[in-house]
């Protein structure tokens, strides 16, 4: 079978090994390879990872054993998230991965999301999470990370509830990787960001119409919530050339 891409899987392999093994099989059935990244700082991994937790910690400037000895949960999670993010960024820049999927509870979601927030807008990224039915902004921030509620907990491997949800999430990220679109700057066209609130919408709509008539592409952002910070990130990525 011709391989159709490579998907990074982020998970704590000491507790989620059975789920990750199932996800690798699902990816293989869809013609994709997997790059498993172990973001779990504790316990031996249940399955082999392409990138170990020791390497993840090392990417953030720590030896894993020293990091664990701090006993500081928040510091450990932050270090693993930063390390995984640096690895994801490198793999993406080198075109070695075509998408990323994570899974977990609070810790796995937090570390996976921290890592995925470094990936470009439009790059396929999804997390299957036990906490996705609640407020996810602290995890997603202003990035286009897809969140899927696992409904059941991850315990003892995929079951009649979590199994189909994991399969659907894997199919979704593969679909995005194989058939989706990446954000790019249109050749010869400048993009203008337009911020608006409800009471300024008529004026903003008129401005958008005028800009389009003059050959500009426009992207509107709501001036409350994560819209402003998302716009700033897009400017930093070179996708926005002016702001109104």
Structure description:
The chain has 244 residues and is of the alpha/beta class. Helix content is 42%, strand content 17%. The protein has nine helices and eight strands. The protein has helices spanning 17-29, 53-59, 64-69, 73-93, 106-116, 137-140, 162-179, 201-213, 227-236, and strands at residues 6-11, 33-38, 99-104, 125-129, 146-149, 191-196, 217-222, 242-243. The chain is globular and about 60 Å long. The N and C termini lie far apart (50 Å). The model has no long low-confidence stretch (mean pLDDT 94).
- The helix tally amounts to 9
Q: Could you say how many structural domains there are in total?
A: 2
Query: What CATH architecture of the largest domain would you give?
Result: 3-Layer(aba) Sandwich
Q: How many beta-strand elements?
A: 8
The best one-word shape is globular
What's the mean pLDDT score?
Answer: 94
Helix content: 40-55%
Highlighted features:
Rossmann fold; 3-stranded parallel β-sheet; globular; alpha/beta; 244 residues; 2 domains; 42% helix; 5-stranded parallel β-sheet
Short description:
The protein has 244 residues and is of the alpha/beta class. The chain contains 9 helices and 8 strands. The strands form 2 sheets. The chain has a 5-stranded parallel β-sheet, with helices on both faces. The chain has a 3-stranded parallel β-sheet with strand order 7-6-8, with helices on both faces.
Helix-strand blueprint:
Blueprint: E1 6-11, H1 17-29, E2 33-38, H2 53-59, H3 64-69, H4 73-93, E3 99-104, H5 106-116, E4 125-129, H6 137-140, E5 146-149, H7 162-179, E6 191-196, H8 201-213, E7 217-222, H9 227-236, E8 242-243
Parallel strand pairs: 1-2, 1-3, 3-4, 4-5, 6-7, 6-8
